[in-house]
Automatic annotation (TrEMBL):
<protein>
    <recommendedName>
        <fullName>Reticulocalbin-3</fullName>
    </recommendedName>
</protein>
<dbReference type="InterPro" id="IPR011992">
    <property type="entry name" value="EF-hand-dom_pair"/>
</dbReference>
<keyword id="KW-0256">Endoplasmic reticulum</keyword>
<feature type="domain" description="EF-hand">
    <location>
        <begin position="171"/>
        <end position="206"/>
    </location>
</feature>
<dbReference type="Pfam" id="PF13499">
    <property type="entry name" value="EF-hand_7"/>
</dbReference>
<feature type="domain" description="EF-hand">
    <location>
        <begin position="208"/>
        <end position="243"/>
    </location>
</feature>
<feature type="domain" description="EF-hand">
    <location>
        <begin position="86"/>
        <end position="121"/>
    </location>
</feature>
<keyword id="KW-0677">Repeat</keyword>
<dbReference type="InterPro" id="IPR002048">
    <property type="entry name" value="EF_hand_dom"/>
</dbReference>
<keyword id="KW-0106">Calcium</keyword>
<dbReference type="GO" id="GO:0005788">
    <property type="term" value="C:endoplasmic reticulum lumen"/>
</dbReference>
<keyword id="KW-0732">Signal</keyword>
<dbReference type="GO" id="GO:0005509">
    <property type="term" value="F:calcium ion binding"/>
</dbReference>
<dbReference type="GO" id="GO:0015031">
    <property type="term" value="P:protein transport"/>
</dbReference>
<comment type="function">
    <text>Probable molecular chaperone assisting protein biosynthesis and transport in the endoplasmic reticulum. Required for the proper biosynthesis and transport of pulmonary surfactant-associated protein A/SP-A, pulmonary surfactant-associated protein D/SP-D and the lipid transporter ABCA3. By regulating both the proper expression and the degradation through the endoplasmic reticulum-associated protein degradation pathway of these proteins plays a crucial role in pulmonary surfactant homeostasis. Has an anti-fibrotic activity by negatively regulating the secretion of type I and type III collagens.</text>
</comment>
<comment type="subunit">
    <text>Interacts with PCSK6 (immature form including the propeptide); probably involved in the maturation and the secretion of PCSK6.</text>
</comment>
<feature type="domain" description="EF-hand">
    <location>
        <begin position="287"/>
        <end position="322"/>
    </location>
</feature>
Length: 337
């Protein structure tokens, strides 16, 4: 998110756990991403929209974010591998799909609807993938035993693990058990597919809202006072030891200021539960609308609040990229557009 809900305090163990969790590519729900996924909204991209692209501590616009928001993560990778002309050809075909009324232009609402459908598909695909991995008996429900034995198999096999890893697994197992119980809406001890979606993507479910807030506070709150201090907040998003540099980048300084101005609303130096809720679930921000406005700003040359095919193709690098943005990854190319 993205965005699978995450636990940044577990990041230092990920490299090792990736090795011991290679079975079916499964990790506990708390290890699927990093702090970037904390604000709960549809994951427009796995990238940061503005980030330090050149490791020079200067925040810049990242076009990869726009590509993934417009295409979806996997299709963005495919487009990145294409030659420019083929990329434009496929973008033209996409234009015709987005232009629902077939009048030759795309409105802001049509673009917004498209981006929303792309990101909703991401959630559905992820649920389906994990459902297949977890549903060992191929019925219409997943039991806790199925999920537990598949995800935390290292706790049950005969291979000894370091105590630190075992302790982390036990903590995550306990956390997942609580979330599983909350997601089990009918209380029958199993999860149907809708309940399973709420379990692995609680940030997308209104009935899981309170638990998401609780989990977030537990993840970041180091001193156990039930609140998130400024330093706890900063340590969650930036590790000076891992960065091997005690000089804070500009973006961290900006986050410090944002915490004081916009997150700690009562200015007591900490975020209480209500302030955490407003941070995770902002009521005054629509990320899909923001991305739509951004793409229009980049491409609407005549500023008529509509995008013609010519305008989009002229700015194809903003929407889909090309070989010019390929970082050398070996990517599969689909021809399904």
């Amino acid at each position: 998110m993205l965005y699978s809900y995450t636990m940044s305090s577990f990041l230092c163990f990920i490299s090792f756990l990736l090795i011991i969790s290679c079975y079916a590519g499964i990790l506990p729900t708390g290890t699927q991403n990093d702090h970037k996924a904390r604000v709960l909204d549809l994951p427009l991209s796995q990238q940061e929209h503005f980030t330090d692209l050149n490791n020079d501590k200067k925040v810049e616009h990242n076009t990869e974010y726009d590509h993934e928001a417009f295409l979806g993560t996997e299709e963005a990778k495919n487009f990145d591998k294409l030659p420019v002309e083929e990329s434009k050809k496929r973008l033209g075909a996409l234009f015709d799909r987005i232009d629902k009324d077939h009048n030759g232009t795309i409105t802001k609402q049509e673009l917004k609807d498209w981006i929303k459908s792309v990101q909703t598909r991401y959630i559905s695909d992820d649920v389906q993938k994990q459902w297949i991995q977890m549903n060992n008996d191929s019925n219409n429900e997943i039991s806790w035993n199925e999920y537990d034995k598949t995800t935390y198999y290292a706790l049950y096999d005969d291979v000894p693990e370091p105590k630190t890893v075992t302790d982390q697994y036990l903590r995550l197992q306990k956390k997942d058990r609580r979330r599983f119980t909350k997601a089990d809406e009918d209380g029958n001890g199993n999860l149907n597919k809708r309940e399973f979606a709420d379990f692995i993507h609680p940030e997308q479910s209104s009935r899981m809202k309170d638990l998401v807030i609780t989990e977030t506070i537990e993840d970041i709150d180091r001193n156990g006072d039930g609140m998130i201090s400024l330093e706890e907040f900063i340590s969650d998003i930036w590790d000076s030891k891992q960065a091997n540099d005690t000089t804070e980048p500009d973006w961290v300084k900006i986050e410090r200021e944002n915490f004081r101005k916009y997150r700690d609303l009562d200015h007591d130096g900490k975020m209480n539960r209500k302030e955490v809720e407003l941070w995770l679930m902002p009521t005054d921000y629509d990320n899909i609308q923001a991305e739509t406005e951004h793409l229009f700003h980049e491409a609407d040359a005549d500023q008529d609040d509509q995008l013609s095919k010519e305008e989009i193709l002229e700015k194809h690098d903003v929407f889909v990229g090309s070989q010019a943005t390929d970082w050398g990854a070996e990517l599969r190319i689909h021809n399904d557009l």
